[in-house]
Amino acid sequence: MADPLERPMRPDPFDTNRSSSSGDREPYAYERERLITERERLRQKYEAERDGSDPEPYDRDFGAAYATPSAPRRKRPIGRWILRGAGIGIVLLVIAIIWLAITAPLSKSLQPPTPPSITLTADDGTPIARRGAIIGKSVDASKLPPHVTQAFLAIEDRRFYSHWGVDPRGIARAAWANMGSGGVRQGGSTITQQLAKNAFLDSDRTATRKIREAMIAFWLEAWLSKNEILSRYLSNVYFGDNTYGISAAAKHYFGRTPDKLNVGQAAMLAGLVKAPSRLAPTSNLEGARKREAVVVGAMVDAGFLTKAEGDAVQPQRVLGSRPSQLPNGTYFADWILPEARDQAGEIKTEATVQTTLDPRLQRAAERTVARAGLRQAQVALVAMRPDGRVVAMIGGKNYAKSPFNRATQARRQPGSTFKLFVYLAAMRQGLTPDSTIEDRPVTIGDWTPKNSDGRYQGTITLRQAFARSSNVAAARLTQQVGVKAVIKAARDLGISTPIPSEATIGLGTSTVSLLELTAAYAAIAREQYPVQPRGLADVREKGWYQSLTGGATEMPSKIHDEMLDLLAASIRTGTGRGANLTVDAFGKTGTTSDNKDALFVGFARDLVVGVWVGNDDNSSNPGLSGGGIPARIWRDFMQSALGIAPIAAPPPAVEEVDPDALPVDEQDNSILPLGGEIEGMGFNLKMGEDGTISVGPSRRDRQEGPPPRDDRRPPEEEPGFDEGQ
């Protein structure tokens, strides 16, 4: 008996022996057989494709095994691929054009493309130097004589009025001519394209540049009229000799305005555009005239001139090459130009920047240096107001021969002028000019400083030590106040160059520029520190951070008075007597070892001046000292600049000195005094004021009579003691 809970099993659809209740086969049995057959066919097809024997690709869609087989795929025609490639190329071209349009300086192309030029003026507005091109005034092409514009059109762009910025016919003609000549003999650029070139700062001949150049040309044609394009071209094209624009070129080469140019002159100027530097008539008149003839022939060929008119044009004469009214460079201009460019900002064409230079004081400085009679030695001079305004600058004897600025670029040892910071540190620590110090030999570590004159005074005041520039006193004082205190004093007064942390810095063994050293002395004159040297009249206001961190600091009145006491003593009774004036003067001499450098830095009234004398190769100058030539240059310049009379009486001597005694340097070598003599062995050695040595007969070999004029020295120039380092 059957279990009533037992369910009947579902017939197996894949059982081939199963029959329906009617005895016939199941209806889906046929479908099952079809699927099995199709699956077997696909398996065989896959194996054949894997073995490479079936050319028909295998359809990897496994769902196809249960779908109705599709018809075999047809190969796509090659034309469809060509169309797709062309479409992609068009899209890429549009993207490139958009990118070039965004990056190309289209707005800049509408600005005057002349190169920047900057003119520096003195404090009274007088031009003193120009850097950059000579730029002429803009012209209106429609107001020029027809033959002037026709000369440029004939040789540069005959189809100017018929093309849209780019001339395909001209490009094809130039390409054909260049192929025939085997080189680049003609250019296909239109006047509009030449104007567009000025929108770029580089001169790369790349495809990208050419495309951008063409785009700018189209842009110009769209925004400007033909007359405006031609006017801008004539106003800004380069004509050689650093001259831009037809106005400047006409004046430079022919001394006239563009509307007064004759046919030959216009043709010569038009011919210069091809190679302005090579064809400039001031240096290549023959080449310029040949090019003029070519332009005249082009004007005849274009119908602008008749054959008779062309034959009547004569070779033109030009004005001779003349030096520029304004120098391109001076020592002062070279120093201030970078700052002037920053102040002027982005210069479009021309800019004028007013400086602090005083023309009268600059001329006085030049005259004083010229009268110094220097032969081989070089010289530098800086004059500034106590607030740092530089009013005169000499960087060497001759800028044309040596533009190296020894006032700003040279870093030399300051010698005893650096003692200013040693004594300032001492005054800060409570010492006074009346405080005493030992002027006796001393050894600090393995260093034994010596006084230059080999003399030691024992116990002396700081005033006396500073006046006679005692080296041992400065060394002792540096050791007493500390090297760090001396360095801090120098930093406070604006010295930024490296200073070694050594006791020898008290004698000026570090290096510094004359400009920076003079500014440090200006801080004493102003009673504020630091003083920043500046050469521009317009001082931009500082930001809030600079105002909080970089402001000037007032010097205590007591310390200021004490420093003035020391500096005045140096001129009244010390090594700086050669700089004595009829007004209150303050300063300090400096001489480095082996007499390589000699300096005098000081101030009187509202003028601070520093003077350096030495050789560029750092060689020795026997007899040179800060109290000699530098002090006299300083004195002569001050008298001229301040309008004061020379001092009538010779300055008093500090002490009685044996006139036959010679000072010695730190190596105990005798130093021939400036203007002094040494006799012996039948001849006489004489030292000139510039350090040169001449040989002559001894006095006893001369005939009786007055001494030669060279041996007559004024009382104030009698040999005395000189300072050392």
Total tally of structural domains = 4
Residue ranges: pLDDT <50 for 5 or more in a row? 58-67, 652-725
Strand order of the largest sheet: 7-6-14-13-12
Structural class: alpha+beta
Which of globular, elongated, flat, extended, rod-shaped describes the shape?
flat
Terminal-residue CA separation:
138 Å
CATH topology of the largest domain: Beta-lactamase
Q: Report the radius of gyration as a whole number of Å.
A: 45 Å
The beta-strand count equals 17
Sheet having the most strands: 5 strands, antiparallel
Number of separate helices:
23
- CATH 2nd-level architecture of the largest domain: 3-Layer(aba) Sandwich
- Please, what is the CATH homologous superfamily of the largest domain? DD-peptidase/beta-lactamase superfamily
CATH secondary-structure class of the largest domain = Alpha Beta
Percent in strands: 5-15%
Query: Helicity level, as a percent range?
Result: 25-40%
**Mean pLDDT level:** 80
Write a concise synopsis of the structure shown.
The chain has 725 residues and is of the alpha+beta class. The protein has helices spanning 29-51, 78-103, 106-109, 146-156, 168-181, 191-197, 207-223, 226-236, 246-254, 263-272, 276-279, 285-301, 307-312, 331-344, 359-371, 419-428, 462-467, 471-481, 483-492, 514-526, 544-549, 557-572, 629-642; strands spanning 117-121, 127-132, 134-135, 243-244, 350-354, 378-384, 390-394, 436-439, 458-461, 528-529, 553-554, 586-591, 597-604, 607-614, 677-680, 683-687, 693-697.
